[in-house]
Amino acid sequence: MPSSDPLKVAVVSGGSSGIGLACARVLLQRGHRVVLLARDADRLARAAAALDPAQEGRVDVLAFDVAEAGAAQEAIAKVEARHGRIDWLVTAAGIVEPGLFRDLDLADHRAQMEINYFGTLHLIRAALPVMRRHGGRITLVSSGAAFIGIAGYSGYAPGKFAVRALAEILRVELACEGISVSVAFPPDTETPQLDGERPKRPLVTRLVSEQGGVMTAQRVAESMIAQAERGAFVLAPSRTIALLARFHSLYRPVLAWQQRRILARDSGRRPES
Predict the structure, then answer these.
(1) Which residue is catalytic, options 13, 16, 17, 142?
(2) Which pLDDT tens digit goes with each residue over 21-72?
(3) Which is catalytic among the residues 13, 17, 117, 160?
(4) What CA–CA distance (Å, rounded) separates 55 from 59?
(5) Among 154, 156, 180, 223, the one annotated catalytic
(6) Active site annotation includes 142
């Protein structure tokens, strides 16, 4: 039976660590009941214990793979059965496997698109019928890499570009249904994922990414949630990202030129103009 507790319900994918877990913490502090979604049941259990050490029952968990559409439908059905509603959906699940296009395996391209884009799509499609009854918010998590082409992210950035496009369309289509849509563009964020990614980055990717600075997951989450509550569509956690969001079309040729020089120097070739 659905809970009779009047608390609003926030569902967060990628909720076992990083930005997803930090968003869950912020939403919990704002009075929501939180449902954490991720693939690893053990990590989810540890995350729930950290968020709700007194076992007050305000944190629920569901382990499944967002890349599987059927599993997403089943998970959302369980959320509805247990809690009766979804007031805020945060799609923070994602992976990154950097590498130059010539070196990246096709399976890496496919896996990143499946989780980063289709994982987002699956959850939103599953949650919409529930959310239409009460309205609410959907916050998609994209990336600063969704504004401009960064060498080394040919497998990662296309999915995040697609998330950005999906958010822009859903913002228009769902407005009349009382559902507010926003999309976040985090810079490099201190998370276990970033720790695993850094050693794999090609030189050009590392040098470009460092220009955007690094934030803690907590600061990113606090900024995201606060901006979304104010009704913002583009959630820019840092000034650099805010400037990139506004002026990326002007900066694109400059960054492309910089990257060609770095790649040419790294390979010992003369850069193309």
Answers:
(1) 142
(2) 999 999 999 999 999 999 999 999 999 999 988 778 899 999 999 999 999 9
(3) 160
(4) 8
(5) 156
(6) yes
